[in-house]
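Appendix B. One record, verbatim.
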Amino acid sequence: MAPILTQAQLRRLDEHKYSCTGVSVMEPPLQVFWIWLAEKLPLWVAPNLITLTGFVISVMTSLCVIYYAPTATEEAPPWVYLANVVGIFAFQTLDALDGKQARRTGSSTPLGEYFDHGCDVVLTASGAVAFACVVRIGETPDLLFVLTTLTFLSHYCSFWEVYTTGSLRMQVIDLTEAQALIMAVNLVSAVLGPSVWLYQVPLLGFTYKAVLSAVLVVATLLKIGSCFGKAIAAVLNNGGASAGGTSVLRPGFPIFCHVALACAFYMNSSTNLFQNHPCLYLLMVGIAMAKVSNEIVVAHITKSEMPLFDVSLLGPGLLFLNQCCNCVINEYGLLWACLIFVTLDLTRYCVLVCMQICDHLD
């Protein structure tokens, strides 16, 4: 298979240094637990194996939620929500341990950073959809589409910000707090049932689901706005160049294409495919966006330009084209085909990038 990375990109990879600044509210007390746990790990355990273990556990538990609530309106058995709490906690903990293990063993490399972020973006796809199922957001289809799409876009923007500034900057309220909130929501659904989110908040007149969704929508919009603000600042101050000397606006085009196609299909489906199979459609969209998120991570660590077009656009693109042709192909069957395609395409990309980086570092 043709290589993904050029020799020039691999040479620039040698110059890359991981940079992270800031601390979130919950991180300091959790660091005590993470450091204690990291010291218990055998030195022979590879950091990337730790990342992969947490990733597999969390993906399996989130897909389990989606299996029992395929339209995000069903009530799953309580053990499903509890399993998802375990999965998120396992990923959060192991994701914090992999970097510590890498430093303990002297095996910190750009491969570890790419592998870590690659797992993050894939888990965002399944995790965001699973969260919607836990709160039964599918009973409001418009809200389901907007909230999950904004979540995918917000996560992409996090990497766009790193691409622009050259450093991962933790906010006061960040991923650790979001994961804690999701675990708490799953726990409430397990104990009281997901119908509890449909009750009205005293004095406010809104349901708990509406309040929770509003908070999340505002948070994601603020994150997206922050990213755009940094991109505009780079245009004004650095002539549009990122910390790596690349265009800060270029990453906006591929994600715009994905969001535009997703919205166009959602608003015009003649067979109500989204209303009947929302989780399946959102998984396909999320995995397709995960591919371009992987590409912007690669662009960051290799100090290279972000590709404008990607084959992952074929997923939402074929659905929209079929829609324009009066659905000459069964939409449900085509949706499954697109989901399988974007999943295989993402897997192929990640495997090839990891293999190339491994060969280069060796």
